[in-house]
Design a protein that fits this description.
alpha+beta; globular; 10 helices; 12 strands
Length: 429
């Protein structure tokens, strides 16, 4: 057998092992995240657009079954045919799918049934990877990549939803105990200048499931400066205590309506006890740390603070241009470390562009020039959300590390506070 053919076999073997590793890590991580939860915890749904942890377990499994196993595994029999409809992506009930608020009523199938479902699908996927021909591996890897990316996104949502559920409980239970961590130095209060001009932004080749992050294109920027760190809890506390939530001139009209309708007086999870501010985290209620990035603020709150401070929010192209210019991963992610589910300060580096909080920008979520909505899997297409949302950049302390980077685009409605959202300031040079 020629050496070149042996090399090709080795390459295919490496690809199979890589697929197996990525699949097992993604599935294993979700299992780890639900480890601290009781069967009762798995049933909780505290917000209409959230979901119980049990549903996240089943829905991510559903995608592997419907987009990987059924199309590509000859002779595969679904674990339970009713699951094919039961755990579809949430949508209008006219198609027979379950509306969001009803998910909390799914006491059956039981958690044990769903875990058996996951085990069944996991075994079938691993068998499929092992048995697929070399010619089938490309298309299989594409579909697996989309399903893996989908599960990784749901890991962040699972933690987001369980945090709100525990906060809604009068006992305010902790998801887990805080680890022992060394003290960290507060990040520097500095600015990063850019001369402006023609820059390139966007991914060269968007990863599977992230079509909205490309194509790469040119943008002209005026000279600007970007804060070297996100706005801190201490800085935002000054805004709160100066009456920022009562000063109508600081707020966009829709933001002021949202503030009045929802009764906002501080970021989500903040509360004042005996004259001192406390913040609810996945470790339970903690004293407010003034050096940590402020978290769980809406775009309206971020915009109002920026106006109060005499600054503005950055455009997403400005944010990406600075992030892509970072000279090392350490500068991009921060050199300190707080437990990735704490929802608090993670780095002492001069940039901290990823890994603390999702950062609001002033940019509306829309397509890049040359964008074409892809055919195929509905879960892969972000183009359908390009309306009434604002762009966030980077990634939060609960974002899977391989999904946070200079090109990462997230999008939320401007009144959303549930996700781990913060912001940094910008100004014209």
């Amino acid at each position: 057998m020629p050496d070149t053919h042996l090399a090709a076999l080795d390459t295919e073997g490496d690809r199979r092992r890589s697929l197996v590793t990525r699949f097992q890590k993604a599935r294993g991580r979700t299992a780890e995240l639900v480890g601290p939860l009781s069967p009762e915890d798995l049933m909780i749904q505290s917000v209409p657009d959230g979901a119980p942890a049990k549903w996240h377990l089943a829905h991510t499994t559903w995608l592997f079954e419907t987009t990987v196993l059924i199309p590509f595994s000859q002779g595969y029999r679904p674990h339970d045919p009713c699951f094919l409809e039961l755990f579809k992506a949430r949508a209008a009930s006219a198609e027979g799918r379950i509306d969001g608020p009803v998910l909390r009523l799914l006491s059956r199938p039981s958690t044990a049934d769903i875990l058996r479902y996951r085990d069944h699908v996991n075994g079938a996927v691993l068998h499929l990877i092992d048995q697929a021909t070399d010619g089938e591996l490309d298309i299989l890897a594409e579909h697996l990549g989309i399903a893996i990316a989908h599960e990784r996104r749901h890991q962040e949502r699972l933690l987001t939803h369980i945090k709100h559920a525990f906060w809604s409980n009068p006992l305010r239970p902790a998801y887990e105990s805080p680890p022992e961590l060394p003290a960290t130095t507060p990040p520097p209060d500095d600015w990063v200048a850019h001369d402006g001009g023609l820059v390139e932004v966007g991914r060269e080749e968007p990863q599977p499931g992230f079509d909205h992050e490309g194509p790469r294109h040119r943008v002209f920027l005026a000279p600007f400066r970007l804060a070297a760190r996100p706005v801190s809890c201490g800085e935002f506390r000054a805004f709160v205590e100066a009456g920022g939530y009562g000063e109508r001139a600081l707020w966009m009209a829709d933001g002021w309506e949202a503030l009045r309708a929802e009764g906002w007086t501080a970021p989500l999870y903040w509360e004042k006890r005996d004259g001192a501010w406390r913040v609810f985290t996945l470790y339970g209620s903690q004293p407010l740390n003034p050096d940590e990035p402020v978290c769980h603020v809406s775009w309206y709150e971020a915009d109002a603070f920026a106006r109060w401070a005499g600054k503005r929010l950055p455009a997403e192209a400005e944010w990406e241009t600075i992030a892509a210019r970072c000279d090392s991963v350490g500068n991009l992610l921060g050199t300190g470390y707080r437990h990735p589910r704490a929802g608090s300060y993670r780095g002492a580096g001069p940039w901290q562009m990823c890994g603390d909080v999702w950062e609001w920008t002033r940019s509306a979520f829309g397509p890049y020039p040359g964008y074409r909505q892809p055919d195929g899997l509905d879960e892969a297409v972000h183009g359908r959300f390009m309306s009434n949302r604002m762009v966030l950049r980077g990634g939060s302390c609960v974002t899977p590390f391989d999904h946070a980077g200079p090109w990462t685009r997230h999008y939320l409605r401007p009144d959303s506070r549930l996700s781990f959202t913060g912001f940094r300031l910008a100004e014209d040079a």
